[in-house]
Amino acid sequence: MSRFRMYPTPTQHAALLEQCAHARYVWNLALEQWSMWTRDKGATPGYVEQCRQLTEARAAFDWLRSGSQTVQQQALRDLRQAIITFYTGTRRRPTWRKAGIREGFRIVGQQSSRIVKQNRRWGAVNVPKVGWVRFRLSRAVPAAKSYRVTLDRGGRWHIAVAAIPPPVPGPGTGEVVGVDRGVTVSAALSTGELLTCPGLSKREQKRLKFLQRRLARCVRGSQRSRLVRAAIAQLHVRAADRRKDWVEKTSTTLARRFDVIRVEDLRIAVMTRRPKPKPDPGRPGAYLPNRRRAKAGLNRSILANGWGALVRRLEHKAAGRVEKVNPAYTSQTCGVCRHRAPENRKSQAVFRCVACGHQANADVNAAVNIAAGQAVSACRETPTRVSSKREPQHTTFV
Q1: Does pLDDT of 380 surpass 50?
Q2: Is the pLDDT at 376 greater than 80, yes or no?
Q3: Residue 374 pLDDT
Q4: What φ, ψ does residue 297 adopt, rounded to 5°?
Q5: Do residues 143 and 153 lie in contact, with contact meaning Cβ atoms separated by under 8 Å?
Q6: What integer pLDDT is reported at residue 398 of this predicted model?
Q7: How far is CA 15 from CA 50, 68, 174, in A?
Q8: Which end of the chain, N or C, is less surrounded by CB atoms within 10 Å?
Q9: Distance CA 265, CA 353 (A)
């Protein structure tokens, strides 16, 4: 999906927010109809019936009639598609849309009537009930029949074109690379390269802490709190942009350099799940320490390094050339003699085999094992899949 930055005027900005509110209202109303279904009731209204109800609502309410019927009907289509993907098991259950969170709406129509090129750097998109809104032509606009207008938490408008780009061709040399993802080093390659995802600088981190402390002293709902929240959102958006840029460049480089890319098969959603509370059996109503704050810091580091986004973009760009390897024992196994022991991992960054004396960067050694294609267990078989990178404490190797 290609995104382009939009630059609406203040009047257009207010009109776009109104369109987002109408799309959100229609979505939530239709979702409520679907969620209230029970076995003792009849079938919930389908798309055609909901469109008829939408026409009646637009005739009854002037504020709803002031919006675009195309945008509102498209919200019903999007919900219908979300329900279908939920029943097929490919997506999660549709959720409620909230004001200020993932704002946006979809528009449909031929590209020739919706998007025009003004000059080499600027284009314009025709948004219903808003008019022609300028956007930056950072690249060629792919051909598509639908576009999505979104507002991020930093207050920036974008137009996203739903088009699948062609995959990146491989070099044809048959070279294989292993990619080990970590917290200190975002991606370590079996070739010895260490890649780090850029984040906020020390100065920006210091300002973020200052703003968070200032927000804690603000009165909830005041004008000052809104300004501080906007400043905090700007910093988070800046970090997200840098992370996405790094993921795009890294995935493109790997897809062009190697024919086969092997990564760990990690369940990131499970790894970043918050720990469950531990009730204290000796004190009813009290809980034992569960290292929640430490786990929260680890979760932030995992998400800030773009583990899932990197593999997802690799699968898009190098379709059919990405292989997932069982992550068990990749950090304890020597990449030279294949001896496995917990003592091999001297520290987070140093790997030294106690059998052959091979010494290397711990992440690079793990990437070499990943490039080998399998993690060998004590019986020389691939062990069962585990949900994280934590290895069982076994020392036997045959």
Answers
A1: no
A2: no
A3: 56
A4: -65, -40
A5: no
A6: 28
A7: 25, 11, 53
A8: C
A9: 25
Please check the confidence at residue 115 and state whether its pLDDT lies above 90.
no
φ and ψ of 361, to 5 deg: -65, 135
Distance CA 342, CA 42 (A): 60
Residue carrying structure tokens 């059998």: 355
Indicate the pairing of strand 157-161 with strand 146-151.
Answer: antiparallel
**Each residue's pLDDT tens digit, 260-294:** 999 999 999 889 998 899 999 988 889 999 888 88
Report the C-alpha gap between 39 and 224 in whole angstroms: 49
Q: Is 334 helix (H, G, I), strand (E, B) or coil?
A: coil
Centre a 10 Å sphere on the Cβ of residue 57 and count the other Cβ atoms it contains. Answer: 15
Query: pTM for this one?
Result: 0.82
Residue indicated by tokens 């999505």: 148
**How many residues in the chain?**
398
Q: Which of 146, 93, 169 is nearest to 321 (CA)?
A: 169
Contact between 151 and 99 under an 8 Å Cβ cutoff? The reply is no
Task: Please tell me the predicted confidence (pLDDT) of residue 392.
Answer: 38
- DSSP reduced 3-state for 304: helix
